[in-house]
């Protein structure tokens, strides 16, 4: 029975991929920050953003909130990649190295485990091949879909 549910969600992802991608790509806050969705798979997502002067902290490095924002964005994209409304329950962010002005941040989210109601994700934030931060995140999966689902 579980396998059927997973296959159905994979089918929803494939059938409604363009609508799902378009919805996630047009997230207002991510667009405001200049975050660009670069990849979207079943339970995975990647994005990038160019670091500008206003994204720096008092020490001249990328503000932690900026790194959190791109990590949170790929978390949202990956967890909503099945067209099912999913909302964050918790995150834990670890900062390991500073980002610099003019660099490109790349974030990638990978689904580690998914049940009917809860899913867990591992997220990395990198720049120029260096790991800057990691995030572990948990999402609550609602019953609603944001793509049209027929009687199944």
Automatic annotation (TrEMBL):
One of its GO terms (molecular function) is acyl-CoA hydrolase activity. InterPro entries: Acyl-CoA_thioesterase_PaaI, HotDog_dom_sf, PAAI_dom, Thioestr_dom. PANTHER family: ACYL-COENZYME A THIOESTERASE PAAI. Keywords: Hydrolase. It comes from Pseudobacillus wudalianchiensis. Residues 59-132 form the Thioesterase domain. This is Phenylacetate degradation protein. Coiled coil: none annotated.
């Amino acid at each position: 029975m579980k396998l059927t549910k997973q296959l159905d969600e994979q089918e929803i992802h494939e059938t409604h991929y363009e609508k799902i991608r378009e919805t996630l790509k047009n997230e207002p806050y991510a667009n405001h920050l200049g975050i660009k969705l670069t990849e979207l798979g079943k339970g995975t997502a990647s994005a990038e953003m160019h670091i500008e002067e206003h994204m720096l902290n008092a020490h001249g490095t990328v503000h932690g909130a900026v790194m959190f924002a791109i990590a949170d964005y790929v978390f949202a994209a990956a967890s909503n990649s099945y067209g099912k409304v999913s909302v964050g329950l918790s995150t834990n962010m670890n900062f390991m190295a500073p980002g610099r002005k003019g660099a490109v941040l790349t974030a990638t989210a990978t689904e580690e485990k998914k049940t009917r109601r809860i899913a867990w994700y591992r997220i990395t934030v990198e720049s120029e091949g260096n790991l800057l931060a990691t995030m572990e995140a948990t999402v609550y999966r609602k019953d609603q879909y944001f793509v049209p689902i027929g009687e199944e």
